[in-house]
Design a protein that fits this description.
CATH superfamily of the largest domain: tm_1862 like domain
CATH architecture of the largest domain: Alpha-Beta Horseshoe
Strand order of the largest sheet: 10-11-9-8-7-6-5-2-14
CATH class of the largest domain: Alpha Beta
Largest sheet: 9 strands, mixed
CATH topology of the largest domain: pyruvate-formate lyase- activating enzyme
Number of domains: 2
Number of helices: 17
Strand content: 15-25%
């Protein structure tokens, strides 16, 4: 395998100002981003937004399971360790009740384009729980043969019976958390997961007819080196997943206390993180994968690669997606709903979430209403995040705006051009391939909410 040499570190760091690489910025899976949600949005607001949806427009569903069998120390998700079946069964009962509450608020029975089961680990629902959940969704919504149903899986707790349940439920895509296959790194992040275990799950999924598989890898973890990370990447590549996601570890122990179990002294420097990212990216592209956005790689000829080529790629709370829906209904503790009127987030505490549902109240505790300015900025940011290029006037005109409405942003873009991050001429932004990983810096130019250091602390570093 060819990879960048250690001498490339100085070239990496000298190509852009150091303070840009260490800025903490949103991943822009929404706009406005979650730190700007507030408690001024209520269950009544969300109910009104649901009632105003266009019944003819497709929607997506996200269902959150906030439980895992073990806690990974790097994890930034809303989850906790639960092994008691009664707790999980009770959660599923209330999740189904929430689905009914939302369905009652809708103007009609809706058609579903995508369903995503995330967590945590949806594995904890068990064989019967998964079947029951999907069956109930089919009772309340129109789910067609072409609707994608995706599930996040922890290979450590995915047995053959659960894979059979996935096939019975109509799961069409599985996302496997792998992160790194080096035993030393795995021990440092409390995720022991041998390659053979991952390979068995992939083989069984494919045998069950679930061919669309994506794998998550992570850089910036303790003890990681470029050669070892490339070895993990090659092992994963040999499993021929449709997609590979390459995420940078976000060390925020002030927000996720369990991350303090990771020795900060063992984490790579910003220059090493950039080198790890660039080395894996180069290897995947040289191995037949198409670079998608800032952190995804799709095997050429797959639906995501085709969508990226066609310029129809989208970005939402699940990251990069081929889903065209502009409305997403979120179910479960901490889940976020997205409508044309704004965002609404559920209570994150399971007990309070459950209490609201018992009282037949939508468990919304915060959110944000969106206006025309938000909508145009969201479109500008999304096109940058997906395409790495942006014709400001072309996109803004669709919303009744023009490049003249973004004079301050244009000045900032000219500064990024002088810094060597982008090409910018005649109102068209282009991010060169070697700087795709820095796209969040460019996108943040259009973020009118990103102002305070307190907000910045909630995000991950740019690389």
């Amino acid at each position: 395998m060819r990879h960048l040499s250690q001498s490339a570190v100085s070239r990496v760091m000298s190509s852009q100002p150091n303070d840009l690489l260490t800025r903490r910025l949103p991943r822009y899976t929404s706009y406005p981003t979650a730190p700007h949600f507030h408690d001024g949005i209520s269950a009544q607001d969300y109910r009104a937004w649901l009632g105003a949806l266009d019944p003819a427009a497709p929607v997506s569903l996200y269902l959150h399971t906030p439980f895992c069998h073990e806690l990974c120390w790097f994890c930034g998700c809303n989850t906790r360790v639960v092994r008691r079946e009664g707790v999980i069964a009770d959660y599923l009962d209330h999740l189904i009740a929430e689905i009914d509450l939302v369905a009652e608020a809708l103007p009609d029975r809706l058609s579903i384009s995508h369903i995503h089961l995330g967590g945590g680990s949806p594995n904890t629902l068990g064989h019967d729980g998964l079947i029951r959940l999907i069956k109930h969704l089919r009772q309340q919504f129109d789910i067609h043969a072409e609707s994608e149903i995706a599930i996040e899986l922890d290979p450590r707790s995915t047995d053959d019976d659960f894979i059979a349940a996935c096939a019975d439920a109509g799961i069409s895509r599985a996302s496997l958390g792998v992160q790194d296959l080096n035993p030393t790194v795995q021990k440092a992040i409390n995720r022991i997961q041998p390659y053979e275990q991952v390979a068995h799950v992939v083989d069984q999924l494919k045998a069950a007819g679930i061919q669309d598989i994506n794998v998550d890898l992570m850089y910036g973890l303790p003890h990681q080196t470029v050669p070892d990370l490339l070895t993990s990447t090659e092992q994963v590549r040999q499993l021929r997943p449709s997609r590979i996601a390459l995420f940078g570890y976000a060390h925020v122990p002030w927000m996720k206390a369990h991350q303090a179990l990771i020795d900060e002294a063992l984490l790579p420097s910003p220059a090493e993180r950039r080198l790890q990212h660039d080395s894996v990216s180069t290897h995947l592209v040289n191995s037949g994968y198409q670079a998608i956005g800032m952190d995804h790689f799709a095997r050429r000829g797959t639906t995501m690669a085709d969508s990226h080529t066609a310029g129809t790629l989208r970005r939402n709370f699940q990251g990069y997606t081929t889903d065209p829906a502009t409305t997403l209904l979120g179910f479960g503790a901490s889940a976020i709903g997205m409508t044309p009127h704004g965002y609404a987030q559920n209570e994150t505490d399971v007990r309070r979430w459950r209490s609201s549902i018992k009282d037949r109240m939508l468990p919304v505790v915060k959110g944000i209403a969106t206006d025309a300015d938000d909508h145009v900025r969201r479109a500008l940011i999304e096109r940058l995040m997906c395409d790495m290029t942006l014709d400001i006037d072309q996109t803004a005109t669709q919303f009744g705006y023009s490049i003249k409405d973004f004079a301050e942003e244009v000045d900032s873009l000219h500064q990024l051009r002088r810094d060597g991050l982008i090409d910018f001429e005649n109102g068209i932004v282009h991010i060169p391939p070697e700087n795709h990983v820095l796209v969040r810096i460019v996108a943040s130019v259009f973020d009118r909410y990103l102002r305070t250091a307190a907000t910045e602390a909630k995000h991950a570093v740019a690389v």
